[in-house]
Amino acid sequence: MAFSVAIAGASGNVGGELLRLVAEHPELELKTVTASSMVGHKVSTLHPHVEAFADLVFSENSSAELAGHDIVFLALPHSKSAEVAEWLSEETLVIDCGADFRLESEADWTKFYGGEHAGTWTYGMPELLIGGQSKQRDLIKGTKRIAVPGCNVTAITLALAPGLAAGLIEPHDIVSILSAGTSGAGRGATEKLFEIEPTGSANAYQVGGIHRHTPEIEQNLSKSAGEKIQISFTPILVSMERGILAVNTAKLKRGVTLEQAQLAWAEAYGDEQFIKVYPQGQFPSTADTIGENNALIGLAIDEHANRLVAVCAIDNLVKGTGGAAIQSMNIALGLEENTGLTAISLAKNGANK
User: 97 catalytic, yes or no?
Assistant: First the structure.
């Protein structure tokens, strides 16, 4: 018997990706999609690519509409998820694709988001290394509340965690420059950028350590390192619709070689079906990840600066959000982790473990 599903906020970019992934999942049955301004319109109006649900109609986002489902995905603006979550039964598996329940520190929430901290849910990054001894996956099993990581956070965390867990890089001199597609900023940003800059543009934004994902990145990597880490993170919005390419650098501990780094990443992710570490000298591009739940990583050492370089590519709407939600949902429900998710790019990308 399939699990009944509702998607709150299904009209946006994340909602559209969840629709696509739910349509491909053999154990899910979509019953309800809610929206705000699009109430009464068919799914095909906004998401014509999801033919399976073309005739489903957006309903009002209310407690009555969301009640009675086995699973509810929240694809809502920040602070709205916390409000809607209060409507839902403790027996319902609720998966928030927003930021409301990611941070453990109330002080960090107040500084970067403002308003009241709603609390902390089980973090939905199965591959997150915790102190080099375990992974977040074990904490997801059987949970009823999941906070999906930020997309930028995923690319940076997965790229750097093995080096910190293995003690190969310094924890206080980490820099990440991340190029992101416009879909991560919402449907409106995607439409606006392509209307204004049809020939291509790149723009740094939230410069100076003020991006809201900063404390989440530090929260994750501190768990991997077993000590507090600090990162300088600058995002760049580029005129592509999907994808993230994170170029991360960190100061190496004395005597660390590229071979040691390759081995540490291989040991950390060798059993992971959705993380692929490239052979020495190879690096991923965003094109290698589009539509798939993969994080692809390439490593190098800048000998002149004595720094590790870890390049990670993901699709921000799949591994960065919707795919992570489905992957964590599978674990929570006791399903095979890859149910409804595929890794068809393995041969094409030339990645290996």
Answer: no
